[in-house]
Write a structure and sequence with these properties.
The structure holds 2 protein chains of 2 kinds. By secondary structure, chain A is an alpha/beta fold. Chain A has a single domain, classed as 3-Layer(aba) Sandwich (Rossmann fold). Chain A is built from 12 helices and 10 strands. The mean pLDDT of chain A is about 95. A 7-stranded mixed β-sheet of chain B has the order 3-2-4-5-7-6-13, with helices on both faces. In chain B, strands 10-12-11-14-15 form a 5-stranded mixed β-sheet, sandwiched between helices. In chain B, helix 1 packs parallel to helix 6 and helix 10 crosses helix 13. The model of chain B has no long low-confidence stretch (mean pLDDT about 95). Classes of the chains: A alpha/beta, B alpha/beta.
């Protein structure tokens, strides 16, 4: 398996830029294993990313990779997918990237149900710029721009995606790397807009300031906080407070955007010119 | 009927842009509704699927620009259209296209600004934004049509130049040209030159996506064609990989400029009218050039040796051509619907050899021929008494 993973990496680009204890590499690895399992042709696989620590993942992958502008990865990916629907397109974003500056693109990609697989690396912070609060920083937590504690409520990415129309929504943590891989596979197989939230640790930009320990301790925190969908069903809202529900959270049925457009082409081609 | 309109017909400027773009092979449009460019989106939505192309109305202007770049990278010629406020929003990704060298065309049908201004009134206030709107030093090509037929021809040329030089090209219209209807006779299918981007001639393993050919332009592989490579807005080496190496950064930015500035004879087109013996040269572009032409005719009838210089390519600015005119002219007038944006460039080019006077209007109305004629008469009197 390791050699298969390696074959999809641009190993000459290592060492990577991520800090010790960072969980981004675990998400990257889960993605590569998922693509291997899906059996996608690397020449037809596209990985688009935004701006931030997590978005640097695209550069380490030996596919067609596009590192775009902050928040806009889904909009670039929409152009690629619509232009060439036969390509398999993954979109890697951070939490601030996807839900703050890119929030509009996120809800509209979901609304269109365009066949993209979005993976959101949620480390609860803007890491690249040194630890500013994001829309996923929990209330009360500290960040360089929330020195007295964050007073903003955070998004629930899964609920946001579901409400906006995504047809596959799932969540895992970097502790649950095998589950993450399986969820990415299932998301990619969904013919529509799929969102997989990956809870990942940023010990340097977030954990240290919030006394969460090192990378390993933050991984163990993920293990303790996580409950599966099945376990969550038996728990009260009080018990679920501060828990991270992991697994497949939602599946929906809706027409896929590029397929609908192909139908318009079939209807109009050669006519009315 | 083919995808090239062949017959004589009454056509609107915005419509001409659509037909020109389609004739040049554009098969992808992403946009967002905005006056006075919306007809371009509407017609694209109607026309593209029948040609096997794709139209999408994105959630905002930023996304439209991003989608256009994505589609182009996937190998489909792509265009977007907007106006002032939308043009401002697109700037970050226009810079991305310049840096990552992704061919694309942006139509900006200028309206009165700043801000919401007068959405239905013409202006030429985006001359500098078209050149310097995105951050950093970057090359850009800006074309400026003065008639409906020219809107068609320049839409084709914009697509061709973007493919040839892998650069964003801006078709800078104004509301008058965008909304005006004229009788046009367009070239027949096969009569227009259509340029395709240069493809790599090497095996994927030997492909350096940012290694330029002799013309300074790197051959471009489309995503999905078997050349797996990295594209980024970060400073990158010839492999496309990010780096902060000062030498690589400098070489990259200089090459991006060189690929355009080494080919100014190809990129710059201008039109002259009665310039041979002109003592008063009127510089005008877009709709204002039409008023200026009439003013020149009337001035000639009144015995004044006037001429019109019309930059069709306004960026890169035709500096050499304007400098030559300054040697023969006794006065230069720059007429534009702004407070002197291109006048500054003209002054730079003439280097004080001759006085440059502006005819400017910024009330949402087109400059009329008699305003320019008055200016011609005035500078003629000044030159005679001086």
């Amino acid at each position: 398996m390791l050699s298969q993973v390696e074959s999809h990496l641009r190993s000459d680009r290592f060492p990577h830029i991520w800090c010790p204890g960072c969980g981004n590499g675990i998400v990257l690895s889960a993605l590569v294993r998922a693509i291997e399992e899906l059996g996608y042709d690397p020449d037809k696989t596209v990985v688009v990313s935004g701006i931030g620590c997590s978005s640097r993942a695209a550069g380490y992958l030996d596919f067609n990779t596009l590192h775009t502008t902050h928040g806009r990865a889904l909009a670039f990916a929409t152009g690629i997918k619509l232009a060439r629907p036969e390509l398999d397109v993954f979109v890697l974003m951070g939490d601030g990237d996807a839900t703050a500056i890119g929030g509009n693109h996120f809800i509209h990609a979901a609304r269109r149900n365009i066949d993209l697989t979005a993976i959101i690396f949620n480390n609860s912070i803007y890491g690249m710029t040194g630890g500013q609060y994001s829309p996923l920083t929990p209330p009360g937590k500290r960040a360089t721009t929330a020195p007295y504690g964050n007073i903003e409520r955070s998004f629930d990415i899964a609920e946001l995606a579901k409400g906006a129309g995504a047809t596959y929504v799932a969540r895992a943590t970097t502790y649950h790397a095998t589950m993450l891989e399986k969820l990415i596979v299932a998301g990619a197989r969904n013919k529509g807009f799929s969102v997989i939230e990956a809870i990942t640790a940023c010990p340097v930009g977030y954990g240290r300031r919030n006394k969460m320990g090192n990378g390993l301790q933050m991984l163990l925190w993920q293990k303790e906080q996580a409950v599966t969908v099945k376990q969550a069903e038996k728990m009260s809202p009080e018990e679920l407070q501060d828990k991270i529900i992991i697994g497949e959270l939602y599946r929906g049925e809706a027409p896929e955007y590029t397929a609908m457009y192909e139908e318009i082409i079939a209807r109009t081609k050669g006519k009315n010119q | 009927m083919s995808d090239v309109v062949e017959m004589a017909r009454l056509m609107q400027g915005n419509e001409a842009v659509v037909e020109g773009a389609l004739a040049a092979g554009v098969r992808f449009f992403a946009g967002y509704p905005i006056t006075p460019s919306t007809e371009i989106a509407e017609l694209m939505a109607e026309r593209l699927p029948g040609l096997g192309g794709k139209f999408i109305q994105m959630e905002d202007e930023i996304a439209s620009m991003a989608a256009v770049i994505g589609a182009s990278l996937a190998g489909v010629k792509a265009l977007t259209a907007t106006s002032g406020p939308g043009f401002s929003l697109k700037q970050e990704n226009i810079g991305y296209a310049a840096m990552a060298e992704i061919p694309c065309v942006i139509v900006n049908v200028q309206r009165w600004g700043p801000s919401t201004g007068i959405p239905t009134a013409p202006a030429q206030g985006d001359v500098m934004q078209a050149r310097w709107g995105t951050h950093g030093d970057h090359p850009v090509i800006v074309l400026c049509p003065a008639s409906v037929r020219e809107a068609y021809m320049l839409a084709i040329r914009a697509v061709n130049l973007s493919e040839k030089y892998r650069v964003p090209v801006i078709l800078l219209m104004d509301e008058v040209i965008g909304h005006m209807r004229e009788r046009v006779i367009l070239p027949r299918a096969g009569e227009v030159e259509v340029i395709e981007r240069k493809k790599p001639a090497v095996e994927p393993k030997d492909y350096y996506p940012y290694r330029p050919g002799d013309d300074g332009v790197p051959p471009m592989a489309n995503f999905g064609d078997g050349y797996r490579y990295h594209v980024t807005g970060l400073v990158h080496d010839e492999k496309g990989n990010p780096t902060t190496d000062p030498q690589v950064a400098e070489n990259l930015i200089l090459r991006l400029h060189r690929k355009i500035y080494d080919h100014l004879d190809d990129v710059i087109t201008v039109e002259g009218y009665q310039l041979e013996d002109a003592e008063v040269v009127v510089v005008a572009y877009g709709a204002v050039a039409r008023s200026a032409k009439r003013a020149v005719k009337d001035a000639r009838a009144a015995g004044i040796k006037a001429g019109l210089f019309r930059p069709v390519t306004i960026w890169p600015f035709p500096e050499k051509e304007v400098a030559e005119l300054a040697r023969q002219a006794r006065a230069v007038i720059v007429a534009e619907m702004n407070l002197g944006q291109l006048k500054g460039e003209v002054e730079r080019a003439v280097q004080g050899r001759v006085r440059v006077t502006g005819v400017n209007r910024l009330n949402g109305e087109l400059i009329t021929f008699d305003e320019i004629l008055s200016a011609i008469k005035e500078v003629t009197t000044d030159a005679q008494s001086g």
